[in-house]
Design a protein that fits this description.
Largest sheet: 3 strands, mixed
Strand content: 5-15%
Structural class: mainly alpha
Oligomer: single chain
Shape: globular
Order of helices and strands: HHHHHHEEEHHEEHHHEE
Helix content: 25-40%
Strand order of the largest sheet: 2-4-3
Distance between the termini: 26 Å
Length: 351
């Protein structure tokens, strides 16, 4: 039988989303409008999307009319959210249920109940990093799954509930983090050691440090400066004010460069690296708004997956931070997720 080497073309490499890509593509796209706004409804029938063969599964009989029979004559419109009503009318009961739920969670964790162990609660906590059914004024989540939600919020960090942190071998830890990372939004998860040479010179490791100390979050301050004016019209008139605020921030940093320092405990020795896919059909259209859309989806997905992983590790009883590095490629190469491409992008022959 003839042996053939598998060949990877430039197209197949591009098909794999670059890990945490930092490229930005933004421009305009010209084309016909989907709906002719000059035509009236009586003159033109608007087609929202073209028909496609086999667009729906075989069991879908119709999309224009529900196949489930209903009787509008006996329909009663829903009232307010029952959970909100209960908070306003039965507050003491709701609070007692919250506390009971927390006690129940602690008991399950200590007994290592399958599905309710510390690892399970940490994963649940991480999965709700950005969305909950609501945050009540009492400071706890409310929703259909109130008891578990309240426990997942208060389980972080577990030491505050008298629950010991998770412990295991390095192999068990890596397997757990990889599995959790994939469930929380990453396509692949790998690990490497911290290399200070790949970090900005204002990041310093100290043996005596007990926690991460960052005196000034420059990105946050810059963002806040722009956000003060971005909604004001016309924005061009606000440019002198923006420049004045930026000059003040620049002067502060130049006069006090120590404000940029990030102190990291010497015990932070490892990096968890995740890859996040971008929509291929959009990404290949770089240089257009469609390409920029794919780029943004990848960036946002990276942010979500990263923060969830941080919260998962914290839910286990340990600390984790977003690595203070603007270039993820060296960490990805060192962790084995791919190789350095000619365009300073990670390439990998994965499908």
């Amino acid at each position: 039988m003839e042996n053939r080497k598998q060949k990877y073309t430039r197209r197949s490499f591009l098909k794999t989303g670059a890990l945490l890509s930092t490229s930005v593509a933004a421009s305009t796209v010209a084309g016909k409008p989907i709906i002719n706004t000059e035509a009236t409804a009586s003159k033109q029938k608007v087609k929202y999307r073209p028909s496609r063969k086999n667009r729906y599964p075989w069991w879908v009989k119709s999309v224009d009319k529900m196949t489930t029979e209903t009787d509008d004559s006996i329909t009663v419109r829903p009232g307010p959210n029952v959970v909100l009503v209960s908070i306003f009318t039965e507050l003491e009961t709701v609070l007692e249920q919250q506390l009971t739920g927390i006690d129940y969670a602690i008991k399950n964790i200590k007994n290592n109940v399958p599905g309710s162990s510390l690892k399970d609660f940490a994963l649940h906590y991480a999965a709700g990093s950005f969305f909950r059914e609501g945050i009540g004024w009492i400071g706890m989540a409310y929703g259909q799954n109130m008891l578990v939600e309240s426990a997942s919020i208060n389980i972080h960090p577990p030491q505050e509930l008298g629950v010991p942190p998770w412990t295991g071998s390095p192999e068990e830890a890596s397997d757990m983090l990889e599995a959790a990372g994939i469930q929380l939004g990453s396509a692949q998860v790998a690990f490497t050691k911290v290399n200070p040479l790949w970090l900005p010179d204002f990041v310093k490791f100290e043996k005596k440090a007990k926690k991460v100390i960052q005196k000034t979050e420059l990105d946050t301050e810059l963002g806040a400066t722009f956000n003060k004016y971005v909604r004001k019209k016309p924005l061009r008139d606000e440019i002198p004010k923006i420049k004045a605020d930026i000059d003040k921030l620049k002067e502060k940093i130049l006069n006090h460069p120590e404000l940029l320092e990030i102190i990291v405990p010497d015990s932070y020795k490892y990096v968890v690296v995740g890859s996040v896919p971008r929509p291929y059909d959009l990404t290949i259209r770089a240089g257009s708004e469609l390409g920029a859309t794919g780029d943004r989806v990848g960036y946002e997905g990276k942010f979500l997956a990263r923060q969830r992983m941080i919260n998962f590790i914290k839910g286990l009883g340990y600390d984790a931070i977003s690595i203070p590095s603007y270039n993820p490629i060296p960490w990805a190469v060192a962790s084995g997720l791919g190789e350095m491409g000619r365009q300073n992008r990670l390439v990998s022959p994965t499908d």
